[in-house]
Each structure stands twice: as C-alpha cells, then as structure tokens.
Amino acid sequence: MPATKDRTSRNRAAPRTSRPSRPFTLWREVLTAYAAPALMAGTAGVVTGQQDLVVAACTSIAGASAVVAFLVGIWLRHGGQPRRWTTTTPRVALTAALVITAAGAAALLGWFAAQWLPAHTSLPVTPWLERLRIDLPVSAALAATIVTLRWRSTLTASPA
C-alpha cells in the first residue's frame, strides 16, 4: 500500500494576530459606494417592476452614496494626517457621529428638494422629488457607516 502524506499539518494556517487589509484608497471607496447601491436598488427595481426605483438607483441613491463616501473619506483622511481624536474615539462613537451628521445633512437636502423647491420655483412636485426625502438620508447613512468602518479598519490593521 502506498504511503499517504499527512495533509493536515500542511493545510493548517498559522493563526494571525490581525487580518491584513488593503489600504484605504478613496477612489476605490467612492466607486464601491456608487456601484453597490446602484446594483442592489436597481436589481430590486427590476425584480419588483418599479421603473422609478431603477432610475433612482443610478441617480439619487448611488449618487448620494458616492458623494457622501467622497466627503467623509476626504474628511477622515485630512490630507494624509488623520485628526488625533478620530483615531482615538471608539469606532462605534465615531461612526455614529458621522452617520448622524451625514444623514441629517442629506435629510435637509432631501426636504429642500422635495418641499422648498416646488414652493419657491416653477419646478412641479413630482414623485422623484418626493423620493429624495428617503433616498438621500438612507444612502448617506449607509455610505458614512461603510467608509468610516473601512477607514478605521485600515488604521488598526497597520503597524503602529
């Protein structure tokens, strides 16, 4: 009978103390922030037959996510030198603060577009304007959460 090799010792990976992660690259984060919600919401719109959701997926939903990812990423990087308090604040607290700020600003923008613009301009009230009240803050909250957590994970993974 031929000898068999002991494969268990060779296949076991040495335990790692920290998971290596790719460095925080802003253009990649912005591209992902646009593509992920566009694909998910667009697919949901196609499956449910909601043409307005398909259009919103590639415009207001994905656009808001990309803009928020860019702004939050730029702010967190702060010219390559992160602010000291953003690196020492607990991850959950920093994420919550940025999510509340981004979602609040997006909600104000959505309200402005849906309420103020039709009342003060010749722009008529349309369903896509009404969608902005929900699309913008939800997209902003998700993008701020993902970018902040991704940014913090690259800081903790790098050697100090």
Tally of strands: 0
Question: For the terminal residues, how far apart are their CA atoms?
Answer: 54 Å
Supply Rg: 21 Å
Q: Proportion of β residues?
A: under 5%
Output the number of helix runs: 6
**What global shape is seen?**
flat
Helix-strand category:
mainly alpha
* Biggest sheet layout: none
Mean pLDDT: 86
Helices and strands, in N-to-C order? HHHHHH
Which regions are unreliable across 5 or more consecutive residues at pLDDT < 50?
Answer: none
Helix content: over 70%
Folded structure, characterized:
The chain is mainly α and 160 residues long. It is built from 6 helices and no strands. It has helices at 8-11, 26-48, 51-77, 84-88, 91-120, 127-157. Helix 2 runs antiparallel to helix 3 (51-77), helix 3 packs parallel to helix 6 (127-157) and helix 5 (91-120) packs antiparallel against helix 6 (127-157). The longest helix is centred in the C-terminal third of the chain and has 31 residues, at 127-157. The mean pLDDT is 86.
